[in-house]
């Protein structure tokens, strides 16, 4: 009942929002106010649901009627792909006003994700310094330290005393209050990073000390080019909430927070999951049907080719199959079960790779560990399905063929499944995307081949 | 080459470590020192790889030779399941010494994950207050605010002045330095939470003010029973790095950090991915073969039953199949392709559920959005595979049967795939675990049925 009421009230909200966005209301200040009131009554998820239902043009229209600060608040509630498209649909001037309000890392992400022409138009509307800074940040690949870092840092000179520092911080209290950072970085001449300081440690420091004396000297820092994978390892190794980023000349350029790294790696994990299911792009059901259909077909058409290749093995043995028609009942089972066994081995390798317990070159280690499991599970599953087949056909030899094929193919599947992610990783192809279809094509072919060639060999016993 | 050298040096490290753990070396102080030196030369991932290769008894032996502080450092580098088993294998006294050194949330996690008898023995070795506190924390389910919170907080009285607070903080500087928190919580009588204060804001506050005047009053807080899902939504909505946790009487009991929530939800996402691949428990290849084999078979044996059910449709139509043997080539393709289409729809629903864009009751919305995609993709894929089939058999009607079955089954698969996660969520079953096998069983049956019943109807045209 509650859910139904929620749905009704949401579709009412949507209608009210669309009414407020009607052209005749366009110029009245009261409409902007009414929109603000309406949005303020929704939580983040309700906002996302309602706004995602609007066509992109109306989303842009909505953004342009809000103050840039409110527009930023709204964008934060939307799925990334929706937010980007809405901003692209804005005039360059309106988009620039919004970009100006964003924190530095989000500015770079948005500009980097936008269509190149739209991005250039927005940058042209910003003041030169800001545009240059954003363009520099956006040039870093998204999943590197440079792409994840924020440039808002408190940088203090090493030769300053605690007293002057406190005085200066108090003078800039408003800016400091807005800046949600807990650490200051201590730099020498030329912005060279020499130390790090918890702001709260200034509370308990002698006023006459120099920062150089109370800072933690030679702090760990990372290069702006460090990839996400190494960042995850870095934060696993060190219990930091953030780490300073330096350029190739050891100059402080920003900080990467644990939060940014966690979010990027979480997004990657769930995107890996979707990819393994064949959803490659960031599909939302609020997108147009034809576009969603096209995105899914891209993956499905690769799959159909792989399927045709695997099925050609059956076609090759069609004579045997027509004589032992009972086999046709068991072929899909053999291929499906082996696929499952192989995917388990894929998942364990993916996990060990990401935990750092396995290196991409260690295929021998994987095989030595998978062979035992593959043999045992192959014998158990082959024994089970073979027994079913023997009873079904009333022919012991059919049981031998079906059970034998499943046993052999289970071993093949776990050995192959264990090393496919390693090979793809070495070849710099994303294992989450390609492991499963590659594996199932090969195990389908092997399974069909094992069952049908064995049946051909034993044909007179099967008839 | 590098990888090979690494592997060689690691197996040498392992041998040296095992030599140091030999019984004859047991009591010598020099062996403890040598072990420390050896471990210090490894980074977190190398440590994990080498230590995971040791049998559990040797892992425990290793822990017992280190100081409790060093043992904690080592445990942090190990995969959770390995760490728990190693601690379980320790004497209760050694385990208690290590537990005593852990931060409060890790204490509770470890005790909660240990075998109940072992956990009770460890608690009995700790002092009464600590044991009670840990047992209380461990009683909260793992993925709730209570299970994720840390109890180390700075709680300050509302009536204290900035001056006395600073004096007190300076007096307790060592403790504060160890405690890596950035916020203090302001409490009234009876530890009732009334405000929150950034420690660094004390830097810029008037010394005479009372904390009640400079704190942020009526801070948001959450209940200790809040589940992970709501915690994720909470941190999505609010840009906090942590949030205070209160018990049922509004008393401050701890804080949950964004980091703890991010880690728990990241772990859940990647565990969802593994579950979708049929790896249910936390398998590592360093575990014994029989145990790994048993864990995987649990899932595979469910699958084999589902497969037998689906294949029974083929058995039912065996007569038709023996007359139109070419169909046997296409049956596995029809079931596999529909399974892929359905899994895409599952993945989009899972994502929209977790983004909060979809409610578990909105199956009508899913159907209205999936029907179009299913129709288009069904026609495209059915057209493709039907053409292949018609040419392969030299019979237009076989193309109609194969293409028609794939088209219908694609539509069925996307409609079903879209709502299965919703239904499982309503039934409080984990969608990541059960969606895929349920879906493929039903789509296999439907696909086999569509193709074979259609072929039976059109039998005279196919011969």
Automatic annotation (TrEMBL), chains A, B:
Q: Does the keyword Hydrolase apply?
A: no
Q: Where in the cell is it found?
A: Cell membrane; Membrane
Describe the location of the CBS domain by residue ranges.
215-271
Which keywords fit this entry according to its UniProt record? Answer: CBS domain, Cell membrane, Magnesium, Membrane, Metal-binding, Transmembrane, Transmembrane helix, Transport
Keyword match Chloroplast: no
Gene Ontology cellular-component annotations = plasma membrane
TM region(s), chain numbering: 297-318, 371-392, 398-424, 436-459
Q: How does it sit in the membrane?
A: Multi-pass membrane protein
Please give the superkingdom of this protein's source. Bacteria
An annotated Gene Ontology molecular function: magnesium ion transmembrane transporter activity
Show the NCBIfam families listed in the entry.
mgtE
- The protein's role, per its UniProt record: Acts as a magnesium transporter.
Which protein family is it in? Belongs to the SLC41A transporter family.
Self-association state and partner proteins as the record states: Homodimer.
Q: What is this protein called?
A: Magnesium transporter MgtE
């Amino acid at each position: 009942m509650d859910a139904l009421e929620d749905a009704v009230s949401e579709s009412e909200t949507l209608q009210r929002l669309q009414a407020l966005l009607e052209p005749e209301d366009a110029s009245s200040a009261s409409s902007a106010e009414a929109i603000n009131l309406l949005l303020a009554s929704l939580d983040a998820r309700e906002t996302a649901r309602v706004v995602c239902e609007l066509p992109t043009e109306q989303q842009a229209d909505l953004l342009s009627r809000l103050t840039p600060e409110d527009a930023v608040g709204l964008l934060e509630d939307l799925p990334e792909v929706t937010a980007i498209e809405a901003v692209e649909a804005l005039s360059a001037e309106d988009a620039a006003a919004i970009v100006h309000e964003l924190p530095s890392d989000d500015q770079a992400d948005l500009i980097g994700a936008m269509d190149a022409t739209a991005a250039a138009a927005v940058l042209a509307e910003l003041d030169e310094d800001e545009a240059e800074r954003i363009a520099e940040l956006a040039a870093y690949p998204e999943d590197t330290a440079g792409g994840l870092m924020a440039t808002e840092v408190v940088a203090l000179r090493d030769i300053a005393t605690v007293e002057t520092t406190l005085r200066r911080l108090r003078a800039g209290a408003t800016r400091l209050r807005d800046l949600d950072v807990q650490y200051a970085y201590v730099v020498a001449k030329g912005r060279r990073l020499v130390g790090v300081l918890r702001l709260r440690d200034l509370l308990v420091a002698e006023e006459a000390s120099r920062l150089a004396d109370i800072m933690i000297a030679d702090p760990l820092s990372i290069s702006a080019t460090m990839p996400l994978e190494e960042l995850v390892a870095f934060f696993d190794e060190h219990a930091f909430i953030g780490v300073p980023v330096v350029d190739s000349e050891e100059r402080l350029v920003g900080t990467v927070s644990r939060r940014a790294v966690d979010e990027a790696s979480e997004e990657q994990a769930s995107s890996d999951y979707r990819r393994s299911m064949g959803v490659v792009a960031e599909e939302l059901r609020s997108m147009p049907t034809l576009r969603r259909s096209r995105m899914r077909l891209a993956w499905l058409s690769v799959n159909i080719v792989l399927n045709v290749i695997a099925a050609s093995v059956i076609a090759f043995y069609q004579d045997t199959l027509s004589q032992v028609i009972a086999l046709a009942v068991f072929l899909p089972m053999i291929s499906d079960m082996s696929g499952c066994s192989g995917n388990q081995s894929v998942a364990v390798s993916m996990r060990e790779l990401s935990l750092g317990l396995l290196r991409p070159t260690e295929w021998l280690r994987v095989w030595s560990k998978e062979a035992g499991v593959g043999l045992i599970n192959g014998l158990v599953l082959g024994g089970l399905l073979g027994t079913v087949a023997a009873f079904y056909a009333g022919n012991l030899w059919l049981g031998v063929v079906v059970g034998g094929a499943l046993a052999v193919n289970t071993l093949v599947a776990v050995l192959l499944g264990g090393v496919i992610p390693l090979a793809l990783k070495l070849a710099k192809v994303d294992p989450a995307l390609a492991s499963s279809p590659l594996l199932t094509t090969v195990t389908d072919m092997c399974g069909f081949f094992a069952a049908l060639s064995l049946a051909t060999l034993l044909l007179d016993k099967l008839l």
